[in-house]
Write a structure and sequence with these properties.
The chain is of the alpha/beta class. 34% of the residues lie in helices and 30% in strands. It is built from 10 helices and 14 strands. A 6-stranded mixed beta sheet has the order 6-7-8-3-9-10, with helices on both faces. Helix 4 runs antiparallel to helix 5. 31% of the residues are buried.
């Protein structure tokens, strides 16, 4: 289990995290969402033990991470700009990681290498940015760490490789009861793979729900009325978003759908259609106008 307890972090005078509290259970795939500079990468670096919190505690299985070599052996951090040794090949990097990760899987490495169609003996510095990202993904998954941290892991991958990566992450997480934390700007992609989405805003954890809880909590209503309606009548519903005019409206509402259904029915629309709201829309409506 991962725990962030009242974690604070500043860089100089810039506040990045303030009293962050977050718990992640085994067998979870968690997506970190937030604007640039919101602290997503800082959270991953604190969790990987390469950075020390100014205040608060970052723990894995009740042990603090920073300066804890045993815990760090259970964590693999794939940064947004992965590093490779100068003139190294994929095989060189494999040998290096096998020194530190006792569960490194040669079988999985070979399977991934075949899927990504890369030459194990080629110099990595001759690869394109996308190919370097593929190498880092192969190594990250093959290490089979208990906790896998991915910072913009899907960048530089084509759609097929993105699909395969999502499959591998999902399969290995549930097979090994491990934890994966993914920071990404691609909200649609996170929605497909993550069972929990944590939104970071204003230096704190703004929202933290399972994907199903988001679906249960946010609703889109498309309404049509016999006569023109003043949009002010919707304000008692505390809408997240209202668009439309006259007789046709779209509302984004937050709350229990049965209660909302009853309130909407009381407005007597002649057409009343409810549908799900995407994670991207939730992020935009909840946070964009507040930043």
């Amino acid at each position: 289990m991962i725990e962030f307890i009242n974690v604070n972090k500043k860089f100089g005078e810039k506040l990045v995290l303030h009293d962050l509290n977050l718990t992640i259970q085994e067998g979870s795939i968690v997506g970190l969402v937030g604007a640039n500079g919101s602290g997503k990468s800082t959270i991953l670096r604190l969790l990987s033990g390469v950075m020390l919190a100014d205040a608060g505690v970052v723990r894995v299985d009740n042990q603090e991470v920073y300066d804890n070599d045993l815990i760090k052996q259970e964590i693999f951090f794939l940064a947004d700009d992965p590093y490779f040794f100068s003139q190294s090949t994929i095989l060189d990097m494999k040998r290096f990681y096998k020194i530190f990760y006792k569960n490194f899987s040669d079988d999985l490495f070979e399977t991934l290498l075949a899927d990504f169609k890369l030459d194990v003996n080629a110099k990595i510095n001759s690869f394109s940015k996308g190919m370097k990202r593929q190498v880092s993904v192969i190594l990250a998954l093959s290490c089979q760490a208990k906790i896998l941290l991915l910072d913009e892991a899907f960048d530089g991958l084509d759609p097929l490789m993105r699909f395969k990566l999502r499959q591998y992450i999902t399969d290995k997480t549930y097979e090994n009861n491990s934890i994966v934390v993914i920071s990404s700007h691609n909200l649609r992609e996170l929605e497909d793979i993550c069972d929990t989405i944590a939104i970071i805003d204003n230096h704190q954890l703004k929202m933290n729900h399972s994907t199903q809880e988001y679906l249960d909590l946010y609703h889109r209503y498309q309404l049509a009325f016999q006569e023109p309606v003043d949009p002010q009548v919707f304000q008692e519903l505390n809408p997240i978003h209202v668009s439309g005019k006259s007789q046709l409206f779209t509302l984004i509402l937050k709350g229990d759908k049965e209660i909302l259904d009853e309130k909407i029915a009381g407005l007597k629309p002649i057409i009343n259609e409810r549908s799900n709201v995407s994670l991207e829309e939730i992020y935009v409506y909840e946070l964009e106008d507040k930043q």
